[in-house]
Write a structure and sequence with these properties.
Elements lengths: L6 E6 L10 H10 L6 H6 L11 E3 L5 E3 L17 E6 L5 E2 H18 L16 E4 L15 H6 L9 E2 L2
Parallel strand pairs: 1-4, 1-6, 2-4, 5-7
Antiparallel strand pairs: 2-3
Bound molecules: zinc ion.
C-alpha cells in the first residue's frame, strides 16, 4: 500500500552555498543524530544510506539524488513526517540556477503524482497540511530552513527571488 502523501516539505542542508555535498555526507550527519532507516527499506533503495531522513537531495549542479523511498516515512520534520516527503536543497540561502530548475521540476512531478496542490500549504487547514511548505514555515518550527520563503517562491510561479540565486 502506498502511503498517503499530502504535502512536500522543502529543506536546505545548511552547508556553505555552492559547496559540493552529497547524500552520503548528509547520511553521516543524520546517522550521528541517531536517525535510522528500516533494514527492509534499504534492501530496495540506497542500501548504503542507513540513516538519511530526506527523500530527495538536490545537489549544487542540479542533480536530484534519492534518499529514502517514497513509501518510507522520512525523518526531516518533527511531528509531520507521516504525510510528507522531504526535499533538501544543498546550500543555505543561495542556490545555482540548475538547483532551482531541478526543484521546480521535482515539485511539479511530485504534485502531479500525489495530487498535491502546487500551492503553499495552509497551516490552518483543518484537514491537515496539503501543498508545499518550507520547514521553517510549519507552525512551531523555529528554524530558518530553507534560507528562502517557499511560500513566496510558489506564489511567484516557482521562480526564485534573484537574491537567492548563486552565480558562477
Ligand atoms: Zn529543514
Amino acid at each position: 500500500m502506498p502511503r498517503d502523501i499530502t504535502f512536500l516539505v522543502i529543506h536546505c542542508s545548511a552547508t556553505p552555498n555552492g559547496r559540493w555535498t552529497t547524500s552520503a555526507d548528509i547520511n553521516l550527519w543524520h546517522h550521528d543524530r541517531g536517525f535510522r532507516r528500516k533494514a527492509e527499506a534499504r534492501v530496495g533503495l540506497n542500501p548504503k544510506l542507513d540513516a538519511i531522513g530526506y527523500h530527495q537531495v538536490i545537489y549544487t549542479n542540479g542533480t536530484v539524488a534519492t534518499g529514502r523511498g517514497p513509501n518510507e516515512v522520512g525523518a526531516h520534520v518533527a511531528g509531520n513526517n507521516t504525510g510528507s516527503l522531504g526535499i533538501c536543497m544543498v546550500g543555505t540561502d543561495r542556490f545555482h540556477a540548475e538547483q532551482w530548475d531541478a526543484l521546480r521540476r521535482l515539485v511539479w512531478q511530485l504534485c502531479a503524482q500525489y495530487r498535491i496542490p502546487q500551492a503553499p500549504a495552509d497551516p490552518k487547514d483543518p484537514r491537515g497540511l496539503r501543498g508545499v511548505i518550507g520547514h521553517g514555515e510549519i507552525p512551531g518550527v523555529a528554524k530558518s530552513c530553507p534560507g528562502f520563503s517557499v511560500r513566496e517562491w510558489l506564489l511567484a510561479g516557482m521562480n526564485p527571488n534573484p537574491q537567492h540565486i548563486l552565480q558562477g
